[in-house]
Amino acid sequence: MNLDDTADAADDGVTEPLPGQMVQHGTGVNSNRAFPTNGYPANLDPFVLFERFYIDPDKGFPMHPHRGFEIVSYMIDGGMEHEDSLGVSHTAYEGDTMRITTGGGIRHSEFPADGAACNGLQLWVNLPREKKEIDADYVDANGEDLPVADVGGATVKTVVGDGSPIELHTPMEYLDVRVDDAWTWSVDEGWSGFLYGVSGSGTVDGNEFGEGDVLPLTEGRDVTVETESGLRVVAVSGEPHDEPIRQRGPFVL
């Protein structure tokens, strides 16, 4: 994806969930962006941005460049075709994950598969300064290759983290969590992260939380998620690089 510039530092004062912001990319693709937004105009070191994309059958992202960060795309519904300058051609479907290390530079395209609309989640993760120019790389994983565990009142799938074949150059964890009753998320001390609502409704630390909502976290703590009717969230956390995030469109310098 090719996105606008962002630069602000994280806001330590957010204590309640915020709504995501609908944005339209130049190619006509619509997204619900968790951050940076007008309501939260900041990155979340080491995370550059996060959004849920919705691609109509006749839309998509033609071949375009990236460098300086890593991309994790996780499909929610439908399929997305990926092609890149490394010679990779792959279609990811619901539950599948693709990771691109853009490093010193890569070009890729993203289009819906099978003539049908698709939607998914995309996360940009900054590369530390000493790895900005590493070789570009690509890896993917089918949904059945990702570990799943029942944890209290929730089912937790690990997209990135312990047991997942998807690895990045930043210590981090990415969980897809289907909460049936109550679930407590623990963010490691010194890490930052966020919760994002995929579907359903419930509460986060007693505050209403649903599809498209986000709770940014700039320090480690426990977060309690509760629901009576079912709530699906992604919980993402990582170790900050403590370096400025300088995004210039599709590049993170």
TrEMBL record:
<comment type="similarity">
    <text>Belongs to the pirin family.</text>
</comment>
<dbReference type="InterPro" id="IPR008778">
    <property type="entry name" value="Pirin_C_dom"/>
</dbReference>
<feature type="compositionally biased region" description="Acidic residues">
    <location>
        <begin position="1"/>
        <end position="14"/>
    </location>
</feature>
<dbReference type="Pfam" id="PF05726">
    <property type="entry name" value="Pirin_C"/>
</dbReference>
<dbReference type="InterPro" id="IPR014710">
    <property type="entry name" value="RmlC-like_jellyroll"/>
</dbReference>
<feature type="region of interest" description="Disordered">
    <location>
        <begin position="1"/>
        <end position="30"/>
    </location>
</feature>
<feature type="domain" description="Pirin C-terminal">
    <location>
        <begin position="174"/>
        <end position="252"/>
    </location>
</feature>
<dbReference type="InterPro" id="IPR012093">
    <property type="entry name" value="Pirin"/>
</dbReference>
<dbReference type="InterPro" id="IPR003829">
    <property type="entry name" value="Pirin_N_dom"/>
</dbReference>
<dbReference type="InterPro" id="IPR011051">
    <property type="entry name" value="RmlC_Cupin_sf"/>
</dbReference>
<protein>
    <recommendedName>
        <fullName>Pirin N-terminal domain-containing protein</fullName>
    </recommendedName>
</protein>
<dbReference type="Pfam" id="PF02678">
    <property type="entry name" value="Pirin"/>
</dbReference>
<feature type="domain" description="Pirin N-terminal">
    <location>
        <begin position="32"/>
        <end position="125"/>
    </location>
</feature>
